[in-house]
Fold:
Amino acid sequence: MSLVEEFKKSIKSPDTEEKLDLVFYRPAGFAIAKTAQVLRMTPTQLTLIGMVMGVYGGILFYQRENTLALIWASILFVWAGVFDSSDGQLARMTKQSSKIGLVLDGICDNVVFGAAYLASSAALIPEYGYWIFLIAVIAGVGHSFQSAVLDFYHREYLYFGYGKVDGDYWNPSVAEAKAEIEKSGDTLEGRMAKLRLNWIRQQQTLSSRTDSERQQMRAIVNGNDKALRDRFCEAYRKHNLKMLSLWRINGTNFHTICIIFFTFMRRFDLYLILVDIIVLNILMIFIRKIQRRQDEKLFKEFGIKP
Structure:
């Protein structure tokens, strides 16, 4: 297998990748994943390395008046994103994907951004007092919801648009998640499932689709009628490809770019208030309404009942 073919197999799908991912994060992540494969490293090890780099970069954002420190903070923050990409690519290349790895990956993302929010907000205490941490928490909650809804529709696209029913792309309902926790018991997988439960609640809160609608969609994709399944997957991609571009505004890349930009402007407060709390939350609600209209067109075409 050529490197080009191996690279293509290391990404989820071209449709679910941003341009910045395809030209930088995924190629750089692939190089790291190939090196890790030779060194017999695991995806979890890459996840943890990325987390350490990101946290250290986040802490450096505290030095808001030190331009050199901010440059290093930005470099480390970006490369944490590269390692975040490489762990998934290595998992797909070596078939080491797991639910534990999925949850750990999300936890590390939250820790990295949490470090940046905490350090950057702490630098603003002389101007805002400790109230800045309340603003940061509100912004952080909004960020979490924004990331959750993007992840939801990315996974929906892979499951319903490409029929990837054998991978771990199904977005479970809250009831399904609770059943999995009960089934797993007091094991590592069970504890990880508990950590993921809040993430699933966020997704279900923002989803434009009910559990009943999604189960009807799932029945088509998992059914024995191949012609119907193929037609549905094609229609799903048609109705949702452009929607992914809108949802990506809520993604990691946009947040990273904004954090770096506003930090160099010495106005992280504007990032928290203007970007995270106001603009992105308003956009999220607006995009959800557009998504619902697209869903209704698809449901009408295939007789899916609300």
